[in-house]
Write a structure and sequence with these properties.
single chain, 382 residues, Alpha-Beta Plaits, EC 1.21.4.2, Gly_reductase_pC_asu, glycine reductase activity
């Protein structure tokens, strides 16, 4: 059927303005917050009203919600909502999703985005949930890369990178500079303090001296909480864009994390953040950056770090047949997660390591949960 004049005019206008005709679909799970579901739904409706070409899918809304650009999918619990969310992402029904209390596999962590109080400048905190590696320095190296990937996706072509002055920062600085010399160009930020350099002080965080602030994940998580809720007393996060998307090599989902304390402004900000990442083609940008990193010897640097301090393995432990892992076992130190997984494999239980919002977890099938807990207790991991 031929297009009428108005349809043709709209298509030409979209092309001239560089707009995509394809709608961006963002899922939002509404279970699990410390605030009422209506708050999240209200934030989604506000985002939908102000964002052109965006549809928000509310996963777990108790009843049909009316509003422009809003769709509802039923889910009785947060766990069910996560299963639906993952299926919709993998099937192309969603481009991105925003959720909370979600466990990423080890190697994936989230890049948060905050407003710095001294200057009002947005800064990416790399990273804020999840864990990139069990080795602290390797994790921070990966965090720096993840922050660069997100910054470039957001349109910052040459993001400035600072390293927060925490344990391991000097080693991270040396290795990132080595990586830069080997061909992966990094634009190191300069501290506002008199001694300069790319090691960032607390003053630099407040003022936004860099585009990407690199730190360990637990420190990053605290920073986002403080900078999101320092005006409210702590129980309601009112500023910023949340804890950000999970980034990792070969990770093919765009899932952004909220805290259970995130208030309506942060929920709306996270939806906007998700739309920016979809339109900036995060997954394509990540693939391009990891290819550059491969050529620059990044994986060899990480491999050497992750070998450090590990005992030689006398035997290779093969995992049992893979199962769907739906249960989490918490309370295991992050540095012992891989050992704990191998202990379960030796006992014939399929397990995976991961990182939930409350810390490291071992994930097993429902029917294996009790046996796995008993084995880990007997081996001294719990």
């Amino acid at each position: 059927m031929p297009l009428d004049k108005s349809e043709l005019f709209n298509m030409l206008a979209d092309a001239l303005e560089g707009r995509s005709a394809k709608k961006v679909k963002v899922g939002l799970t509404v279970h699990g917050s410390e605030h009422p579901p209506g708050m999240l739904i209200g934030a989604a409706k506000e985002a939908a009203k102000s964002l052109d070409g965006v549809e928000i899918v509310l996963i777990g809304a108790g009843e049909e919600v009316e509003g422009r650009g809003i769709q509802c999918v039923k889910a009785g619990t947060l766990e069910e909502a996560h299963r639906i969310m993952e299926k919709m992402l993998d099937g192309g029904e969603l481009d991105a999703a925003v959720t909370m209390h979600y466990s990423f596999p080890v190697g994936v962590s989230t890049v948060g985005r905050v407003v710095t109080p001294a200057r009002g400048k947005p800064v990416l905190i790399a990273t804020t949930t999840g864990t990139s590696s069990a080795n602290r320095v390797a994790a921070m190296m990966k965090n720096a890369v993840y922050g660069i990937i997100v910054a470039k996706t957001l349109g910052i072509e040459n993001p400035s990178v600072g390293i927060l002055n925490v344990d391991g920062s000097r080693q991270v600085e040396r290795l990132l500079k080595q990586l830069s010399e080997q061909g992966y160009e990094i634009n190191f930020a300069g501290s506002m303090r008199a001694d300069g350099g790319c090691i960032m002080r607390g003053n630099d965080l407040l003022a936004g001296s860099c585009d990407v602030m690199v730190t360990d994940t637990l420190t990053g998580n605290i920073l986002v909480k403080i900078l999101s809720a320092y005006t409210t007393g702590g129980d309601y996060e009112a500023l910023g864009w949340g804890y950000g998307p999970g980034i990792g090599e070969d990770y093919r989902r765009i899932i952004l994390i909220l805290s259970r304390a995130s208030g309506a402004p942060v929920v709306e900000g996270a939806i906007r953040y998700a739309v920016e990442l979809v339109r900036g083609n995060l997954l394509k940008k990540a693939s391009e950056e990891f290819e550059k990193l491969r050529k620059a010897g990044f994986h060899e640097l990480i491999g050497e770090l992750e070998k450090t301090g590990k005992p030689e393995e006398k035997t290779i432990v093969e995992p049992p047949p893979k199962k769907a892992v739906t249960e989490e076992i918490a309370g295991i130190d992050v540095l012992q997660m891989e050992e704990a997984v191998r202990i379960l494999w030796k006992s014939g239980i399929y397990a995976e390591s991961g990182m939930g919002c409350t810390g490291p977890v071992i994930m097993v099938a429902h029917e294996d949960l009790k046996s796995a807990v008993d084995i880990l207790k007997a081996a001294g991991y719990l």
